[in-house]
Amino acid sequence: MPMLHSPLLLWRTRLSPLPRELSLHPSAVLRHVRARAGCVLGIWVRAGLGDAPSVRLSRPVAGRSVGQCLSDSCALLNCHNGGTCVPLGASVYCRCARGWRGSECAERACPCGADHRPAHRCAAGATCVPLHPHAYTCRCALGQAGAHCDQALQISDPSFSTNQSSWMAFEPFNVRHHTHIRIQFMPRSGEGILFYTAQHLAARSGDFLSISLSGGFVQLRFNLGDSTICLASTCPTDPGMDTWYTLEAGRVGNSGYLSLHGKNVTTRERLGMRALDAKTSFFVGGVSPLSAVSSSATEYGPSAFDGCVREVVVNGRRLTLTANGAKGGANVADCDGTACGHEVCKNNGRCRPRVGVDFECVCGEHFTGAACETPVACVHRPCKNGAACMPANTENLNLLGYVCACRLQFQGQHCENKITFQTAGFSGDGYIKHTDVRYDRRNLLINEISFNFTTESKDGLLLWLGLAKDGYNDYLAVGLEGSHLKVAVNLGEGTSAPVVVTVTHLCKNEWHSVIVRRNQTLMWVYLDGDLVVAEDLDPHRRYKALNYDAVCFLGGFELGRDVSRVTFDLYSQRLYGKMRDVRLHPDEEAIDFALFAEGYNVHGADEL
Q1: Looking at domain 158-334, which CATH architecture does it have?
Q2: pLDDT for 7-57, tens place per residue?
Q3: What is the SS3 assignment for 109?
Q4: Whole-structure pTM over 0.85, yes or no?
Q5: CA angle 362–366–370, rounded 5-degree value
Q6: Which of the four CATH numbers 2.60.40.3880, 3.40.30.10, 3.30.450.30, 2.60.120.200 does domain 424-604 have?
Q7: Residue range 441-471, pLDDT digits in tens
Q8: Distance CA 500, CA 481 (A)
Q9: Superfamily in which the 376-418 domain is placed by CATH
Q10: For residues 169 and 330, what is the distance between their CA atoms, to the nearest angstrom?
Q11: Secondary structure of residue 53 in the 3-state scheme
């Protein structure tokens, strides 16, 4: 309880000031009053010093030997704004008219206040928002609907409303060096925020990135600490026409791009800041509160989006646009009012709403399962030895309807044949993931990796040393681009400029050898015995260790992970070719593909 200073007593008769030691607590004040004779009109207590407001003590809870000063107990009490004086034993109080409160009914009552009668009707989890002294509205949490938010709502394709200041918020992740966003949306209005994140949630936000509609045109705006960069679509959207648009926008360093209607807008790399320091949530459809949006993030001031959104992908990660998938939100409805959302049914299955908040998928003839995710031919588990049964591509669909993705050391149509090999063969759909069991004893300041390979394609990923969970894990990567060797390294603060060895053209189906040596930031690359790269990755030596977390990928990444997206377009596809004699350190034997490794769709390619 805060210390109370300078109690002020108004008496009918003159009384001496309160002793200093009695000004510390209301109970002391009341004991002092009890020792006096006379009439007390009111007692005010000031909590604080200086201009701190005083509070009048209202209805008593106990007393003794107190009489009425005047014959009319209400003569000294003035109830304002239509309030009525009501005697209560030896005291009186004001019964206030609707919309007013306080000991003399001089304070406006908040319709959302706990002491307001009648109480507001907003359901638990919703927020009561006063409109004026006699009215309020309910701001519904995600999964709630109705005037009082008392109805359950399943969100599959969220619908946002400008008038309701709708928004959804998602857990952020690192988008510091590059930000790639894909959004599918259907606008009802030509204004509003589609996506927003910033360094601070304030009008002076620091760094920010915003995608919004302005006059029907899509705008990408971002500020990395020096100036705001703005890109706008060349063609406007057509709000209110039930048209879905696919937008791709983002940045790499301080160069931005935006693509809508198949028309691209880009800005070139320039001198200046290159990293986006974003710490707020990822907001979709609006921001709470809108006053916390950077003044430079929109053209004419921030407003919530009015329309539907059915897909948001940030740096390859799909945001789950449901009540459970978001960390927060308000006043979000569902686009069609059913549980049928975008791609809830796979493989061209048709979603059919059911009673309540459920749905069912009507599958085509070749697929089954709750979401049409399983090829009919896979129901009987034709794939052996732990293989994954997967839908076949279109040209093979009428043959079997499925393909078996074989685990490492197995091959055959149904993965029925166990194999051993020293040369791994890749056909553009496989990978090997090796675990370095000696990682804890490695000197991470130095590396020397070596391997031999052939290729059947001019592009492809050969080796990726690192976790590959996102673009900010450390890595050392080797691959092919346009029949040339391409090496890229990240030691912890973004990617050094990838090195493409153009002096040597790699012939298809011929064996080539690669050695990559690294000592802190110094790197040497040897191709077929020739030194082709000698470079200092960072002369400032800010980061010197390669923390690859004991993981090494060969030929690609796990099934379902697109090489282009995982590497942020450093490499375009998986390997078509062969690899052998892979060494992570020069003093060790080549990797044994049968030990400490996992993988799929790798066949033995040993030469006779």
Answers
A1: Sandwich (2.60)
A2: 333 333 334 444 444 444 444 444 444 445 566 666 767 665 555 555 666
A3: coil
A4: no
A5: 40
A6: 2.60.120.200
A7: 999 999 999 999 999 999 999 999 999 886 6
A8: 8
A9: Laminin (2.10.25.10)
A10: 9
A11: coil
